[in-house]
Amino acid sequence: MENIIPRWEWRTFGDVFGEAEKKMRTFGDGKTRESSEIYILSEVSNDNTKIRDMLMDIKTLQQVNSDTLEQWKPIMKGTFPLPQSEIAKVFDCFKVPVPPFTRETYALDQFIGELVKPQQLLRAVQVTKKRTGYTINGCIAEIAEITADGIPSRTAAIELEDPQRVIETVRMLGLNSFENINYLKGLKRIVGMKH
Questions:
Q1: DSSP codes, 44-84
Q2: Taking the CA atoms of the chain, what radius of gyration do you get in angstroms?
Q3: What percentage of residues in the chain have a pLDDT greater than 70?
Q4: What is the value of pTM for the model shown?
Q5: What gap in Å lies between CA 91 and CA 36, rounded to an integer?
Q6: Angle at which helices 163-173 and 18-25 pack, to 10 degrees?
């Protein structure tokens, strides 16, 4: 994970993105991908913790610049079953005490059922995504239809390692008229969790 350059991201959530979405869709047909993920939301942390394809994937917010762009750095990709030492790192990201362990390693269903669900400050949220990706000004751009615990929403995002290219693209598309809302905040709003 040491060689990964953190990306700068701008994202928003809503039902419609108007002219900005129309402009995004002029950059080709886009590549569509579908996925099913589990986000673990913590009322006391803003680290992005999700599970996809049996991988625990954690990104931490490094900084926010004057344009409100957020820089996110991947810090973990762990494969289930996870050992106690890795789970302790995950709970550090949740900013809640590490629970007592009864196993050496935890399969995904054991991790959710025995370690996450008993925690009052944590919530496991089932998220399905249908993402359509574009390349705009060299940036990764996407519009996605999502459901979070069965509640539908939409999100649009621009990201790249270069913050100047990201904000220029956001402004060019007119997305800067929307609030910048990262995945954690967006999901917490959708499911009615504090953030």
A1: T---EEEEETTEEEEEEEEEE-TT--EEEEEEEEEESSEEH
A2: 17
A3: 98
A4: 0.93
A5: 22
A6: 110
Fold type of domain 7-191: Hypothetical Protein Pfu-838710-001 (2.40.320)
Q: Is the pLDDT of residue 191 over 70?
A: yes
Residues 134-158 have pLDDT tens digits of 999 999 999 999 999 999 999 999 9
**pLDDT reading at 51 higher than 70:** yes
Exposed / middle / buried, residue 111 (Cβ in 10 Å: 0-12, 13-18, 19+): buried
Instruction: Determine the Cα–Cα distance for residues 149 and 127; give it in Å rounded to an integer.
Output: 6
All residues at 6 or more sequence positions from 171 whose CB lies less than 8 Å from its CB, including other chains: none
Listed as own residue / partner, the contacts of 23-26 with beta carbons closer than 8 Å and 24 or more positions apart are 23/172, 23/173, 23/174, 24/134, 24/136, 24/141, 24/143, 24/156, 24/173, 25/134, 25/143
Domain boundaries, the chain: 7-191
For residues 77-93, give the mean pLDDT: 96
What is the rounded end-to-end Cα distance, in angstroms, of the chain? 28
Where do we find the tokens 């054991």?
110
- Give, as one character, the DSSP assignment of residue 162: -
